[in-house]
Amino acid sequence: MLQATIGRIDHDDVSELRDWLASLSARRAELQESYRTHGTRHELFLLIRTRQRPILVVVAEVEDDEQAKESFLRSNLPIDVEFKTLVQQISPEEAEVELLYDSSLYVGGPVDA
Fold this sequence. Notes:
Largest sheet: 4 strands, antiparallel
CATH class: Alpha Beta
Distance between the termini: 24 Å
Strand content: 15-25%
Radius of gyration: 16 Å
Order of helices and strands: EHHEEHHE
Number of domains: 1
Helix content: 25-40%
CATH architecture: 2-Layer Sandwich
Number of helices: 4
Strand order of the largest sheet: 2-3-1-4
């Protein structure tokens, strides 16, 4: 299942976010443990620069959307605690998002032969 989170952040917070994400390359074992714990397969962090404020888009492929959210919020893994603290510090402002199309409603199962 794909999960997307979108929020506006301050220009001043971009470098802190960028530095923290860059530090993950040296924390592979912790990151893998976090992914296993929450059922995460893959994540993308995208920064969209606009005139007013940058927009942060996080796209994750997870086994179960609700379980992944609950597991992350309850997590005491150091890497998760750090990320939750970072998110509180940069205080992303939720952006209004409208889902226009979800292909899983029409396709997504195995193709019949």
